[in-house]
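Summary of Year 1 activities. Much of the first year was spent building the evaluation harness for sequence design. The harness presents a backbone, in tokenized form, and records the residue chosen at every position. We chose the following record to illustrate the format because it has been used consistently in internal testing since the harness was completed.
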């Protein structure tokens, strides 16, 4: 069945940004929902494009006005999907992409009737750590916190319909699989892991 919304989660460092960029050229109806966050912008991030960067007070004001479709606290910062913008995308016939962490994704899954959910992962923990360090935008403390959060999130992979591995040098394939899933609800790509239990068991080895 054609999904109305695409939920994509992945560990920090899974390459969600790159993969989404390619996927949206393959299936132009995909439109990224821009989240609100209290995290400080990284170099190169633009307000209103990557996130709406707000103060904690502004975030809590939106929250108390019931302005979020879902929201969470992640590694010490608040993140949320602005409700109005999200429903407007659905009304306009786009397939909104919620690029959100697992807690928010579980909230969204409960709320939505028609969605596809994808968990995007690097092949293993070692690659995850290399990518996070390679990005060079994070403090050591933030890296360690994100790695430990990833260990907790691992178990939640089971809750997603599709597990896709973003292998080094194969972002195109991951993007193709995501575009197919957004368009048709399924894909037979080889980057989709069918045996989630084995993947979870081997990820940290
Ligand atoms: P980052 O700080 O690296 O941009 O994002 C940290 C985590 O927060 C990522 O897993 C990202 O997908 C997630 N995230 C971004 N926006 C939202 C949001 O609106 N809601 C939720 N629940 N998570 C979000």
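For this record, the design step produced the sequence shown next.
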């Amino acid at each position: 069945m054609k999904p109305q919304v695409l939920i994509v989660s992945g560990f920090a460092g899974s390459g969600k940004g790159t993969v989404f960029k390619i996927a949206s050229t393959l299936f132009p109806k995909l439109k990224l929902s821009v989240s609100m966050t209290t995290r400080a912008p990284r170099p190169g991030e633009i307000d209103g494009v990557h996130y709406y960067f707000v103060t904690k007070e502004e975030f809590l004001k939106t929250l108390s006005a019931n302005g979020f479709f879902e929201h969470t606290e992640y590694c010490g910062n608040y993140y949320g999907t602005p409700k109005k913008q999200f429903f407007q995308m659905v009304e306009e016939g786009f397939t909104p992409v919620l690029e959100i962490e697992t807690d928010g994704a579980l909230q969204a899954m409960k709320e939505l009737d028609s969605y596809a959910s994808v968990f995007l992962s690097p092949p293993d923990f070692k690659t995850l750590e290399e990518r996070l360090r390679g990005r060079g935008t994070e403090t050591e403390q933030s890296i360690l916190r994100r790695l430990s959060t990833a260990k907790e999130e691992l178990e939640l992979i089971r809750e997603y319909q599709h597990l896709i591995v973003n292998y080094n040098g194969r972002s195109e394939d991951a993007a193709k699989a995501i575009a197919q899933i957004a368009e048709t609800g399924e894909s037979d790509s080889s980057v989709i892991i069918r045996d989630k239990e084995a993947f979870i068991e081997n990820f940290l080895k």
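The helical segments are 16-26, 56-64, 83-91, 102-111, 125-135, 140-153, 171-184, 196-203. Quantitative recovery figures across the full test set are reported in Table 2.
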